[in-house]
């Protein structure tokens, strides 16, 4: 997988930075849901849920499909995969730096 660009990372963290969007993702972890099914427990309007879903879709964390008059939402793994890749890249870098610091402090 190629290195994530700044805007991609920004979109992912922006999407995850909002508690309502995280609550939507938590609900979708259990099963796909309609927009109204997402709005009810959150106490927000259908319009607000749709706006949050647009952010989640843009970042690759969720997707929606319209079947008849019902818009069904589900998790999308692409965004989570990209986020995991970014975390793995940075973890490796920081682990190397900390190992080098430990070696320096030990006098190796």
Plain-language structure description:
This protein has 108 residues and is an alpha+beta fold. It is built from five helices and three strands. It has one domain: Orthogonal Bundle (Arc Repressor Mutant, subunit A). 69% of the residues lie in helices and 13% in strands. A three-stranded antiparallel sheet has the order 1-3-2. Helix 1 runs antiparallel to helix 4. The model has no long low-confidence stretch (mean pLDDT 91).
Number of helices: 5
Q: Please, what is the oligomeric state?
A: single chain
Which secondary-structure class do the elements indicate? Answer: alpha+beta
* SSE ordering: HHEHHEEH
CATH architecture: Orthogonal Bundle
The main pleated sheet reads as:
3 strands, antiparallel
What percentage of residues falls in helices of 4 or more residues?
55-70%
CATH fold label: Arc Repressor Mutant, subunit A
Straight-line distance between termini: 35 Å
Mean pLDDT: 91
As for the number of domains, it is 1
CATH homologous superfamily label: Winged helix-like DNA-binding domain superfamily/Winged helix DNA-binding domain
At the first level of CATH, what is the class?
Mainly Alpha
Overall 3D geometry? Answer: elongated
Rg over CA atoms: 19 Å
Spatial ordering of strands, largest sheet: 1-3-2
Number of strands: 3
Proportion of beta-strand residues: 5-15%
Poorly predicted ranges? none
Report a brief summary of the structure:
The chain has 108 residues and is α+β, with helices and mostly antiparallel strands. It contains five helices and three strands.
């Amino acid at each position: 997988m190629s290195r994530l660009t700044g805007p991609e990372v920004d979109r992912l963290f922006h999407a995850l930075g909002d508690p309502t969007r995280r609550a939507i993702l938590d609900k979708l972890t259990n099963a796909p849901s309609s927009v109204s099914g997402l709005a009810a427990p959150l106490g927000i309007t259908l319009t607000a849920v749709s706006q949050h879903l647009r952010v989640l879709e843009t970042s690759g964390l969720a997707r929606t499909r319209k079947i008849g008059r019902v818009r069904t939402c589900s998790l999308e793994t692409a965004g989570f995969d990209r986020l995991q890749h970014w975390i793995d890249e940075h973890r490796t870098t920081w682990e190397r730096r900390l190992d080098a610091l430990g070696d320096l402090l030990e006098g190796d």
